[in-house]
Every structure is written in structure tokens, then in C-alpha cells.
Design goal:
This protein is mainly β. Helices cover 13% and strands 38% of the residues. The structure holds fe (ii) ion.
């Protein structure tokens, strides 16, 4: 993209949801593989097994997707954003791990934070992928493969997908401020993308195939908002063992297990008690900033290389829970 961005972010850090019952959310997220970082009267911070102080924030209130945070590379990046129109002054973060932030509001109304300076925490478990014996490559000789049942080992918040009125305009807005670039476009017609997978521009350093997917809100009746949230787990066994754990807990399954086409991740999707889709994934593609954007027709076929078909309910914007009308 030709516009010079204000900064280039390093990654996404966490989403902010709002629900009426933090106990229920904590219970779901524990089944999903997270651990409480801190609980206050009106906000819940949950962490992964990795080094971030938290990877999921929930506020008390009516069900809503409030926004999300990018992690940036320096305090100077925060200062650059804060000096730009629409951003708040840099302030200390009152949350586990501290750090600093500035924020703005995107064209849909989501609060977009940029954060820097978290104090890392000690990992809760070994996050290495399990050693595999694959034909001619043997990583595990003289040892067994034993998968402990229980929730997935979550490494980090990996990406989010948002339904927006115009994916091209959304990417232009995010590129100008945060440096996101397009990995793949799915086009209704030439030059008319209905979905754009975007990644962080880390120069020669590889980045996830997508940190944000901008999807057209056409399939959501024109309602913009959250499509899904996604966390990286350690390996394929974590996807499947985590799936069995969530099923045993009676959680609501949405779609999976499968392997995506664009991004290549092995995925599995679950809904929280209010319907927000939370994804486990592993083994995604990595591209540096030089990789060209791919263009694909919407008629390219299945969105997965294997696994069940995408349900029609997947990725629709979750409308607010209807409020009871007064007489
Ligand atoms: Fe995803």
C-alpha cells in the first residue's frame, strides 16, 4: 500500500468483551484453556500459558464486543500514535503487567488500543510442540507419546475477524495508523473484495498470515462487529484434546476440526455462553512483508482443505441481546 503508516504494529495482544456474568465467562475460558490473571469487581483478566500477563479481557455489562489491542515495538511508537489525530494521550495501564497505552476508535466504533511495556509472566507449562515420529524424521526415539487430557495449552492471542461495511476502507484505515498489509483478498468480482486477510508488517521478520480478517457485513444483514476471536495453541494434539475437553464440559461447538485454506491453520471454533466465537488454531502460515497479496475468487471453493463444511451460522455478527421493552 502506498500510504506511509504512522507506525507498524508487532501483533495483536488481547480482545475486550463485555458480558453480564463474569463467573460464567471465567468458567468458559477455563474450559477453553485460560487461567485467571486477575479478577476485579467489574472486569476479568485471563491469561494463557505463555508470557503475556493476559490475553482476554471481559467487562461486566450488556453483551458486546468492545474492541482489542495491538502490541507495538516501542514507547516511541505509542508517542507517535498519541501525537496523531483521534488518539488519546499515552497513559499507564491499570491492569496486570502494567505498561502504557494509547487508544482510538475505528470507523465501526470499536476501541482500538496500542500497548507497550507489559511485564512478562512466567509460562505456566512447556509450550513446545510434542516431538513427532514422521516416517523418515524421528523426533522421539525411546519415548512414548502420551497426551494429557484437559484443556488446550494456549500460547497467545493470535487474531480476530471483524464484519465491516467495506473491507477495503477498513484496511485503508488500519494500514494508515498501524501498518497492516494485505495477505489475501477474496473477491466477489475483480477489485471487489468481500474479505481481506491482513498481517503485521514486520519487514524481513515473518508474521502470521493474518492478525485481522476484515469480512464484509453483507452476510450479517449489514450489522458490523465481531466475527470471531482466535488463540494459538501449541500443536495439533492441543486442538483435538482441547476439543474433547470442551465437549465433555457441554460447551457449544461451532465448526471444526479442519484445516483452513487461506492461512493454512488447523482450527476448531467454540462459542462462549453469549455466542462470541472463540477459536483454537495451530500451524498457520508465516510471511514476511515482501510476500505479494493473493487474489481469489469467491467461487474458489471450500474455505477448508479438510474437515466439515462451514456452518451458515459461522461468523455472523452477534446482535446485542434483545432488551425487554417497557409497557
Ligand atoms: Fe480465525
Amino acid at each position: 500500500m502506498s500510504t506511509q503508516p504512522i507506525i507498524r504494529v508487532r501483533d495483536v495482544a488481547f480482545p475486550r468483551l463485555q458480558v453480564p456474568d463474569l463467573d460464567q465467562m471465567e468458567s468458559f475460558l477455563m474450559d477453553f484453556g485460560m487461567v485467571r490473571a486477575e479478577r476485579r469487581s467489574d472486569v476479568l483478566y485471563m491469561r494463557s500459558a505463555g508470557t503475556a500477563p493476559y490475553v482476554h479481557v471481559t467487562h461486566q455489562g450488556e453483551p458486546a464486543f468492545l474492541g482489542f489491542a495491538f502490541s507495538v515495538g516501542s514507547r516511541a511508537d505509542l508517542d507517535s500514535l498519541a501525537a496523531s489525530p483521534g488518539f488519546t494521550p499515552v497513559e499507564a495501564i491499570d491492569a496486570p503487567g502494567g505498561g502504557w497505552k494509547t487508544s482510538t476508535v475505528d470507523t465501526v466504533g470499536h476501541v482500538v488500543e496500542a500497548v507497550f511495556g507489559f511485564e512478562p509472566v512466567t509460562p505456566l507449562s512447556d509450550l513446545s510442540p510434542r516431538p513427532l515420529n514422521m516416517g523418515e524424521t524421528f523426533q522421539r526415539i525411546g519415548a512414548t507419546q502420551r497426551i494429557k487430557s484437559g484443556p488446550s495449552r494456549i500460547k497467545r492471542f493470535g487474531h480476530l475477524a471483524m464484519n465491516v461495511p467495506d473491507p477495503v476502507a477498513a484496511l485503508a484505515w488500519y494500514h494508515a495508523r498501524f501498518g497492516l498489509i494485505a495477505s489475501d483478498r477474496v473477491n466477489l468480482a475483480p477489485g471487489m473484495p468481500v474479505a481481506i486477510f491482513t498481517r503485521c508488517d514486520k519487514g524481513a521478520e515473518p508474521a502470521d498470515h493474518h492478525s485481522i480478517l476484515f469480512a464484509s457485513n453483507m452476510s450479517s444483514g449489514g450489522v458490523s462487529g465481531l466475527n470471531h476471536l482466535s488463540w494459538e495453541v501449541c500443536d495439533i494434539d492441543d486442538v483435538q484434546a482441547g476439543r474433547e475437553h470442551l465437549a465433555a464440559k457441554g460447551r457449544s461447538h461451532e465448526w471444526g476440526v479442519g484445516r483452513h485454506l487461506l492461512g493454512s491453520q488447523v482450527f476448531d471454533y467454540w462459542r462462549d455462553p453469549w455466542g462470541h466465537i472463540h477459536e483454537h488454531w495451530t500451524d498457520g502460515d508465516q510471511f514476511d512483508a515482501s510476500a505479494p497479496t493473493g487474489d481469489h475468487s469467491i467461487d474458489m471453493g471450500a474455505v477448508s482443505q479438510w474437515g466439515p463444511n462451514m456452518p451458515s451460522s459461522f461468523g455472523r455478527t452477534i446482535p446485542p441481546i434483545p432488551r425487554s421493552k417497557s409497557a
